[in-house]
Structures are given as C-alpha cells and as structure tokens.
Structure prediction request, 117 residues.
Amino acid sequence: METLPDKTVERLSQYRRSLNNQLAKGKKHIFSHEIANLLHITPVQVRRDIMLIGYSGTLRKGYDIKELVHLIGVILDTDEGQKIAVIGMGNIGKGFIHYLYEKRSKLKIVAAFDIIP
Prediction:
C-alpha cells in the first residue's frame, strides 16, 4: 500500500473510534454521509479516505462497519505496538495510564512527565 497522507491517517483514527461507537449501538452498516455527520466533515472526504485504503461499500447498505474497523486496524496498528509519552501525572494522567494497560495493549508507555517531581 502506498503511503497515506498524514491527514488521512489522523481521520482514520477518528473513523475507527466513531465506527466502534456505532457497533456498540448495534449498527452493522453505515453510509459515508453518516460518518461525515459524526465527524463534521464532508461525505466526499470520507469516501476519498476510504478509497485510499482500498475499501468500498455497497450502494444499498453502505460500508460494513466490522470490516472497515478491521481494515483500519490493519493499517494503523503495528505488531510491535506504538510508543507513547504521557504528559501530566495527576489523577487524569494516572487514569489514562490505567486505561491503556487494561484496554490498549498495543500502546506502550515509554515516558511520563509531570511538573511536580
């Protein structure tokens, strides 16, 4: 696959989050205009981004949400995971780290910073 534009990669992450929310609500298919409404962008932009990753939907049903989430995961997630740094180790920072350990095993915390030593 060719290198995707940075802005497309950013939007893919947003698409995945929104699509997972729709899956949690029991929805199985979605149209580009519905995704666009969720993210306040144009349906043309959604279709272009999804075309760049080589996926297409159907005219009657739109995109299969599970398949699209899986494909986005293949593109965004690496086998070795992604290294991150957490800035701010107050209650929110600690809660964020706890969340990452439980739900996002592919994200590895390599540094944490706070204003108070």
